[in-house]
Design brief:
39% of the residues lie in helices and 15% in strands. By secondary structure, the protein is α/β, with parallel strands linked by helices. The protein folds into two domains: 125 residues, Aspartate Aminotransferase, domain 1 (Alpha-Beta Complex); 219 residues, Type I PLP-dependent aspartate aminotransferase-like (Major domain) (Aspartate Aminotransferase, domain 2, 3-Layer(aba) Sandwich). The strands form four sheets. Strands 2-8-7-6-5-3-4 form a seven-stranded mixed beta sheet, with helices on both faces. Strand 5, helix 8 and strand 6 form a beta-alpha-beta unit. Helix 5 packs across helix 9 and helix 11 packs parallel to helix 13. The protein is globular and about 60 Å long. The termini are far apart.
Length: 368
């Protein structure tokens, strides 16, 4: 495999150093939790090799919420590892993959490193960044092995309806194609979560984690759900050959968190709603950017209007260098840099307001 570092990682705040960032609007998750907030005592935990498929109780908790059995859940080192396991298990050089674009970079870069033949299902601003199922169906052909979508979508926050999800599942099943649905924002859907896609068909794979909604990226706990026993055996073999098992410390923290998740949920969703209201109000008051209002997640993907006189490169220089404010520029997603992903779940409301104000100031100062 030919590995290439992704811009989204090279230019991330953790890579540049958080001390160089005043207002961080790059993050695609809720604010990071502190271990002390979870009130855990792990002194009696035995630091052994864990169950290879993942802690049984942790899988039971995920399975109950997902409508599947614990044996259909594989715990991985974050959703990124689940995506890696799936791509390297299902794809070979030249195999055809159909993947949404824009997208989270790992959904594209790992298949690219394998040498898969990738076609993009372009999500268009003019179509509300929603998949066009008729156009998608026409892109699937006899060599297609995998169709990959993210719902709710990263970076745009767009959604599918449950009827559209079921239509997509039926489409892929009829064509004999595996469907991968990255559901890391599932619980953040503004109208309530869709069913876990893998619970609806054994031809569907679901991927999720505790990173985005719950602010626990540091424990590196994600999972994939697969109802095909033979395929699950392949995924388990891949996991064992890559990292054998997960950290029992991470799994124990995840297990105890999920057992008490309802204690944390009200504060998390209240903060998300408050910050979303801040972004909506700001978008209504400014005139340089246009957007498709997100239907889920904690990111949006506005773009500078065609009529805007803002010099895009100067805008980013002013935003980063003068105001020490950072967003996810379009090239992180192989899009024009006039697009920018704004993460509104990670900062506190006042920090978010200040970061958005810096965007407005930078745009005003970058007019050509």
């Amino acid at each position: 495999m030919k590995y290439v570092r992704m811009p989204i990682e090279i230019e991330s705040p953790e890579q540049m150093g958080y001390d160089n960032v005043k207002y961080n609007l790059t993050e695609s998750s809720f604010a990071d939790a502190q271990l002390g907030d979870l009130d855990l005592d792990l002194r009696s935990l035995v630091l052994c090799y864990g169950e290879h498929q993942g802690n049984r109780r942790l899988r039971e908790l995920i399975a109950v919420e997902s409508g599947v059995s614990p044996d259909e859940v594989l715990i991985t080192a974050g959703a990124a590892a689940a995506l890696f396991v799936i791509a390297t298990s299902l794809l070979r050089t030249g195999d055809h993959l159909l993947v949404e674009k824009p997208n989270y970079a790992t959904n594209i870069e790992t298949p690219r490193a394998i040498g898969a033949a990738i076609d993009f299902h372009e999500l268009r601003f003019e179509e509300g960044f929603r998949p066009n199922l008729d156009r998608l169906a026409a892109q699937i052909h006899s060599k297609t092995k995998l169709v990959s979508l993210t719902v709710p979508h990263n970076p745009t926050g767009s959604m599918l309806s449950e009827a559209e999800l079921r239509q997509l599942i039926e489409l892929c099943a009829n064509k004999g194609v595996t469907l991968l649905v990255d559901e890391t924002y599932r619980e953040m859907a503004h109208g309530g979560p869709l069913p876990v896609a893998a619970s609806l068909s054994d031809r569907v794979l679901s991927v999720s984690s505790l990173s985005k909604t719950w602010g626990l990226p540091g424990i590196r706990i994600g999972w994939l759900i697969c109802r095909d026993p033979k395929l699950m055996e392949t995924f388990l073999a891949a996991k064992e050959q890559i990292f054998i098992c997960n950290s029992v410390v991470d799994e124990e923290i995840a297990r105890r968190f999920l057992e008490r998740k309802d204690r944390f949920a009200p504060a998390v969703f209240s903060a998300m709603q408050k910050n979303f209201a801040v972004v909506k109000e700001w978008m209504q008051k400014q005139s340089d950017l246009e957007w498709i209002q997100p239907e889920g997640g904690v990111v949006c993907f506005p773009r500078f209007r065609d009529s805007s006189s803002v010099d895009i490169e100067r805008f980013y220089r002013v935003l980063n260098d003068k105001y020490k404010t950072f967003v996810g520029p379009g090239h992180w997603f192989e899009m024009e840099r006039r697009y920018l992903r704004i993460g509104y779940g990670w900062p506190k409301a006042e920090e978010l307001k200040a970061g958005l104000a810096a965007i407005s100031l930078s745009a005003a100062e970058a007019r050509s």
